[in-house]
User: Fold these one by one.
Assistant:
Number 1:
Amino acid sequence: MIDIAILGFGVIGGGVAGVLEANGGHIAERLGTGIRIKYILDQREFPGTPYAGLVVHDIGVILSDPDVSVVVEAMGGVHPAAEYTAAAIECGKSVVTSNKAVVADRGDVLLAAARRRGVRYLFEASVGGGIPIIRPMTDDLASNRIESVRGILNGTTNFVLSRMEEGVPYADALDEARELGYAERDPSADVGGFDSARKIVILAALAFGKLIPIEKISIRGIDAVTPEELAEAKRNGCRIKLVAETSLTADGRIYAAVAPEAVPPTSLFYSVGGVFNAVSVTGNMLGEAVFYGRGAGREATAGAVVADIIDAAERRFAAPPALMWTRARDEDLSPVK
Ligand code: HSE
């Protein structure tokens, strides 16, 4: 039996429990053993649910239990999620997360710590919700030099923009996205472009090995897009999409930015509607490959988290892969493409 602990029992943490409940038999067949939630760390108690008896309020209980081999960090925000992640790794536990804020802020340090301790730090669900993108970039595209990555990386804003095209006012569309569990706790991270920026930081690190401080990225969100701009894009046969991109310039520096863009029908991004995301990766051997699917939402994202739990459990005794990032310096970055 693989014992896990879930830190944060909100949309994603609760979704992980749901996936394990729905697909536990299938997962046990694949793993040769089951995955059991031993602890849930949360401030709430969840009385009357099957999880009430698993709740603890002290991370120390989880850290000191040698049976827990995988910790799922689904708390959101950088603090205390980052500190708990570092502590779990130091205690020899693999950590699986959907928390892009932590990965973008200190993925370099946490990956190095995991490597040192011989455990895994996995974050497939941190970009693109349920879309496989981290593992393809880490493993399947390892033979390519990545030249650029462009994507619609935020489900909330794409959903809001699609609803606005249908005539739904901005505030109502954003409320819908919150009710559906797509938006961040503070949705200004979505509409202000910061969530997309964190995701492009992660993809740039996977592509170029450098972790860019988020404050070095040019970020424009959809909060400034007016209905008039949407209408004008429509008149021109285009749709507004929030596009994040990163590429390597001719002089070997990294460009990264997030901005609303009017995309024409000839673009693959034109047909990406609702909560869906698309990520286009160009490698020097493969050319362009596009990854498409649900970019937010409980089941889609939790499914990716559980896949990482399976990976961590299956390769428990294998050396962690050589994923090493260094922090980007000013001279590594370019303000223009
Ligand atoms: N708020 C995020 C989004 C959740 O809408 O894309 C998934 O990362």
Number 2:
Amino acid sequence: MMEPPHTSVNRITFLIGGEAGQGITRGGSVLGRALTRAGLHVFGANDYPSIIRGGHNFYTLTVSGKEVYSQDDMVDLVIALNKETALLHLHELRKGGGIIYDERIDFEEGEIPEEDVKLFPIPLTDIVKEVGGPPIMRNSVALGAAIALVGLKTAPLEGVIAEAFAGRENVVESNVSVIRMGHDYAREHHEFEGRLRAEESSPGRIMVTGSEAIALGAIGAGCMFYSAYPMTPASAILHYLISKDQETGMVVLQAESEIAAITMTVGASYAGLRSMTGTSGGGFCLMTEGFGLAGATENPIVVMLGQRPGPSTGMATYTAQADLLFAIHASQGEFPRVVVAPGDVDDCFTRTVEAFNLAEKYQIPAIILGDKSLLESHKSTLPFDAESIEIERGELLEAEEWTGEEEYRRYEITESGVSPRIILGTRGATMLANGNEHDEYGFTTIDPIGVVAMADKRFRKKARLVDDINGLEPVKVFGEGEPDVTLVGWGSTKGPALEALRLLGGEGINARFVQIVYMEPFPSEAFESAMGDGGRSMLLETNITNQLGRLIKEHTGARIRQSLRQIQREALQPGRDRRRGEEAGLMASIRELDTGQKNYWCPGCGNFGLLNGVKRAIARLGLRRDQVTAVTGIGCHGKTTNYFAVNGFHVIHGRVLPVATAIKLANKEQTVLGFAGDGDAYGIGMGHFPHAARRNPNITLVVHNNLIYGLTTGQTSPTTKPGHVTKTTPRGAFEEAINPISTALASNAGFVARGYVAEMDHLVDLVEEALRFRGFALVDVLQPCVAWNRINTYQFYNERVYKLGESGHDPTDLPAAYERAEEWSERIPIGVFYKVERPTYGDNFPVLAGEPMVRKRLDGGKVAKLISEFA
Ligand code: SF4
């Protein structure tokens, strides 16, 4: 049944629909921006399937002289770019509403109830043909006609078109001309009751989506590193930030996976940059271990989690609020976090700034919980107040030199629970971050007293965190007086709730809306005070299991019995002994590179030789300890950071390369070395290896290749050769082994080498050469595991290895490198297989020019200009 006609002047809802590829969202947003410029309030929402061409798309734009918080259910004017749109949306038309369509479309008799619906045929195709334009220009004609029907002039629309196609004068001209033709035609041939009144002087509102507002908030907050993997509905943030990277000076990059994205973000944060990533539920499932790494290592990061319906891929382009409890509980173990859920574009901007401040002040991860509806819908609003932004970086020591009387302790036990951070590369101090439980210096520990002390330290932050959140209006109340009914909601339910207050008020019902903005820590007191005696209450959330309701009950005991839950289709100083006997600023020697920590590697393990070789190379290069960062994965090699007195980051399994890459981008002056086991690099981390090789960051990866899993007590590894009997291959391995050398060559690595721990001088030369190389360098090191590998022993290698450098091999000859890479029988080559420099990944980032990123000051001031571009 159709609703009665829309009687209030100055509120019109348009629906523009057609096939994917017909420019539906663009058309809708152009109309929305034009009407915003005309001084009207707008709210625009798109609806599209997850396909590129074909399929039905539509964009709903509600326009009014008063603020619009959400789109209306009913439509006044349908702009049908195909017949399907007209028929599909008939039931949404208000009585007296109309359809603008191409006069070439024929409706069957009875298809349209003409007594209730006005038909506005326009020669869309003919007008476009007249100016020789492409078919997509039909929507410009239709927009011109729509503007005419609601009694407005074309000037704002023409202005928006001129900016959208700036520099392409012929495109601007032809579009303006068809807009005018459509406008004239509609005025001459049709009449419509609905009217919009443009303001005499526009208050200069902007029209933005939630994604754009979050991106602007991140820029305003001084975010300097954003890494993400494309995923609806988070991709728009990536697209916007990368389009503005040179203006903002932010490093923005598309990672090879969500795992890489979040571990890069943690790596950049470790170095000292404000860092952020964004994804949706499926991507956040992959990110949870990295999220825990941020929690354990106390590296502040911000994650934008854009919800969409799940489980699994669910409906990629629709909206839901079903990841609330997931966000609050994600990752193993316990650590404090912030989860904030903005409800509209203004919240998106301000709450993003708050998320960065809280994350850095308390050195914790923060989640901005959005959803498709919030992130992709346009809303007009006054320009965000860039002047009011205050950046609070907490206890971050930004001095270039460590002047502390004692050695720096990354995880110093403090009363507040917050341990002062330093910028990676601070002269005279090294910093060890560790995803394993650790002591104050960052060294791995299982000492029960130390473990409890560290866990308590982390959680001591929470009291002050709660106080801070209470000062940030974590619960907002809309509506006044004694309410008959109180609506309670979060996130994008805010818009519909505010519209509901308006409608209920019109019917004499006193209603309030309580918006919960901070979900973790949950603002219990603020919530209870907001609820007071609010009459009947009703929960609004877009999930089945009443997630906000469960959270309220858990924290306050209150139970809101009535709920409207809808699945909307639309809707670490490493080494307390490190500085002993040395003064900061001295060049590192082998002894100085020893942390003094007890070593737990098996006697005779090749790891000793490998680490010794690396230390000798570092000493030869004359690098200070604070100029070198070692990133290690999980496995026996992972303890390297405990034994190597440079900056260190012991990360999670397989994620050495993204973290090392981000650290190098954050501080290009650091010499960054990644250490990984063969399982770490070529098994779980294989998703990063070819990408690091092709991407070419100026880092060196040293792989402890022992052809077996050591720490987990002797299972097959990706490099285990066929026939090898291990605990998991009792009949002998039957899978082909990964060949790291040829894999690196095929991935376009610029420096590919193999070393052997018992050829020490040769190994030192190789590592030195790799460290001097500009670009990604692989040194795969034959490292006998004396505990578990009885085949690939010292004797095995001593009988077989020969040096490429003594065999006439030309390391610039790629085919020859492939040929040598295949040798693994009576003779096994070691040395440089291939070496050709090309521009590094960092060379391709203009924003990396000049000082290292970590020494650049946060400058959120650039955001004011960017905000104005949305007017
Ligand atoms: Fe070395 Fe193997 Fe012992 Fe691990 S298990 S420390 S790799 S010998």
